[in-house]
Amino acid sequence: MKLTIITPDKPIFEGEVTSVTVPGTAGSFEVLENHAPIVSTLEDGKVIIRTGKSEEIINIIGGVVEVIRNKVTVLAEGITTS
Question: Which domain of life is it from (predicted)?
Fold first, then answer.
């Protein structure tokens, strides 16, 4: 599954992942391979990126996520360093 995280300033992440957890406005949710298509707004919070071997956390400031055909795109308003 391919994940892309973009802010208005620059691309933040692009690569193959096994799963990603995003901070949806109705609560956090996890996206796995072959997830149903979805578009959701995001709140400030953690995007947890999992590959087969590691886990990375990126703190975002709001945005939108789109999932379609094993491609996950997060359009974040910004990122924080905390």
Answer: Bacteria
Q: Which residues contact 26 (CB under 8 A, 6 or more apart)?
A: 40
The arithmetic mean of pLDDT across residues 58-79, rounded, is: 97
> What is the model's pLDDT at position 81?
78
**Which contiguous run of DSSP H or E holds residue 51?**
none
The verdict on pTM exceeding 0.90 is yes
pLDDT of 60:
97
The domains of the chain are located at 2-80
- Average pLDDT over the chain, rounded to an integer: 96
- β-sheet bridge partners, residue 55: 50
Q: Rounded to whole angstroms, how far apart are CA atoms 16 and 41?
A: 22
The superfamily in CATH containing domain 2-80 is F0F1 ATP synthase delta/epsilon subunit, N-terminal (2.60.15.10)
